[in-house]
Amino acid sequence: MRLPVNIFLWTFGATLLPVLALVWGVTAFSEHRFQLEVNREIGDNIQSLTGEINNRLRYEREVLRGIAHSQPIQTMLNALVASGEGIRHPDLTSDRIRANSFLAGLQRTVPGLGSIRILDAAGNTVVKTTLGRAAPPMFQSLSQVNYVEEELEDPAFLNQLKSLPMDDVSFIMLPPSLWDVAPGQFPSMLYGVYPLRNFGNNRAGYVVLNTYGEYLDQILSLSPKPRNTHVMVIEHDPGNPQRDGLVLYNDQTGRLFVTPEESNPNTNPQYAQTIDHGLFWQKAVALSNGVYLSQNKKTRTYFQEYHPYPYSLVSWFIMLKMPADVTSAPFQDIHHSLWGFTLLALGISLLLAGLGARYFSRPIARLGLSLKHFADGNPHEIIPVDSRTTEVRQLQQSFRYLTEHLTEEARKRQTAERQMLQQAKLASIGEMAAGIGHEINNPLNNILTLTRLLERQLPPEKTELRTDLEDLRAEALRVGHIVRGVMNFARQLPPDHQPTPITQWLLDLIDRLQPEAMEADVFLNLLLDDQDCVASFDPNQIGQVVLNLVRNAIHASPPMGEITITARSKPDSFEIEVLDNGKGIEPEALDKVFDPFFTTKSVDKGTGLGLSISLGIVQYHGGTLEIENRQDRSGVRAFMSLPREKSSPRVGN
Ligand code: ADP
């Protein structure tokens, strides 16, 4: 998995996820609590509504009871009994006038009373006042009673009347011909009926009261309710399919108790069974109270069953219908903000992951690249140690240590290999040189002996010949010298260690070199850090080495050049460094300077044996000898390090 994805998952999982879960969880919890609160509040609303409706209906029942026991009504009981038997009572007219004026006056003073009827024992309307006005007795009958409404021939209705309990208000539906509504409409409310009792304890007649329900309309329209909430009242009448599910009140469609006409009966549900394909009504009837979420999830309807009429199976469902998002709306903004917050958090965590990954991966990638370069044979590539992350910096340090260590080891191995090769070369060349030297020595000795003999036998006046013979001898000696050098090189004599005061030994050597330096117009500079340093070595052999090094420096130095010879003493060793400011050594020649017979000098100046012999001597002493160009090739640095005490010979520098 890529580093940014890893970091992202970590930061997201470890920090953002719990925070987001917490925030979303708290919001969901609050929303749930809020929903419960709203449910409770609406439950309270419906409760208070039913309470108020109940009060009003109880009041109306009391009015009905009051009418039944009022003087004008009680006075006409006999006339009513007679009318029920088909006889016109002589007091009927005066009783009617009294009752009419009483009831009309009552209607004017007690608002909300619809029509008030006084029925005789046979259920025919003897008196009826509507909205404070008496209806005329215009329907003649055989008995000459003259009813206010059409004579009823409805035995079922009569039986129902007769079965009503005495001394109590009952609620029933009048036959359709007596309904006080427009044709095709149903009255909103049942009719309250109070049976009248005469002195013989028989049913003398009935007072029938129809309340308009304008008070109920007021109660329902003024009741406190949440915004955009509509109220509905639906009748539930299991025994009467015509009224079961009838919508009595719906403030959304304008259907009121007072005006039970639909503003548009085609579109507005007149029956609850048409709402949501009957699903709503099914649930309401089954549960009595609860909440219904419409199928399109747009509205939520709270309903509660209420029994407005005592001793009746008829009930009302009081319903509050509101948009489903009323409860979720306040959380809409919070949800939007939360989504914004979540997206922002995601963005930030992605950004952080990207930055973090770059921050962490870049040094590691760079480290990898440097290591690759190193492995590809570029040991001078420097591993950076610059990360600000402690662990990464430690890694960088470890790798730098590793590469430095490997480089150093590789350098040592190379040098050792070179030295071994050198020694092998020296050994084979030495053997050959020793053989040649040995072969040349005998004839050379013969030449010298013969030359000496000739010199002795030569007459003194032959000065010219004598000079030639001397030259011949000098040349032979010179050849002998070279041969000895070659022999020396070939079979290195073991060093004769002597405790040597460094200062004096070096001053003697410089003295010997001074004439050559002056001739080359070069200045010799000697620096000593310890005047009293004494070391154990072969002063002749090591002296030979120093002479070689300084001579090479003199040969390389330009006129007016300066050669600095520095001696430093260390606890276990002493070092001699020879610095010149000559032209330096060509890079390709640098590897060969220790090779026997490698020289860039003319025949009379160099044999190419100086450094190879010197290296042999130094190694025989257990020391090291290095020749390198100074910085910018501003000359050569020759460096020799020797142990202060006698030690075993070493291989390699
Ligand atoms: P020789 O001096 O006889 O040439 P050496 O073995 O002493 O033999 O030196 C080998 C070669 O190394 C020299 O010919 C010269 O090219 C080079 N060399 C040694 N020392 C120096 C120096 N100080 N400056 C420049 N070249 C040097």
UniProtKB/TrEMBL annotation:
Originating species: Halothiobacillus neapolitanus (strain ATCC 23641 / DSM 15147 / CIP 104769 / NCIMB 8539 / c2) (Thiobacillus neapolitanus)
Keyword Coiled coil: no
InterPro entries, per database record: HAMP_dom, HATPase_C_sf, HATPase_dom, His_kinase_dom, HisK_dim/P_dom, HisK_dim/P_sf, Sig_transdc_His_kin-like_C
Primary enzyme class: transferase
Keywords: ATP-binding, Kinase, Nucleotide-binding, Phosphoprotein, Transferase, Two-component regulatory system
Pfam families cross-referenced by the UniProt entry: HAMP (PF00672), HATPase_c (PF02518), HisKA (PF00512)
Origin superkingdom: Bacteria
Main subcellular localisation: membrane
Annotated signal peptide: none
CDD domains found in the cross-reference section: HAMP, HisKA
EC number: 2.7.13.3
PANTHER family noted in UniProt: PEROXIDE STRESS-ACTIVATED HISTIDINE KINASE MAK3, SENSOR HISTIDINE KINASE
A GO cellular-component term linked to this record: membrane
Name of the protein described by the UniProt record: histidine kinase
MF annotations from Gene Ontology: ATP binding; phosphorelay sensor kinase activity
Subcellular location as annotated: Membrane
Catalyses which reaction(s): ATP + protein L-histidine = ADP + protein N-phospho-L-histidine
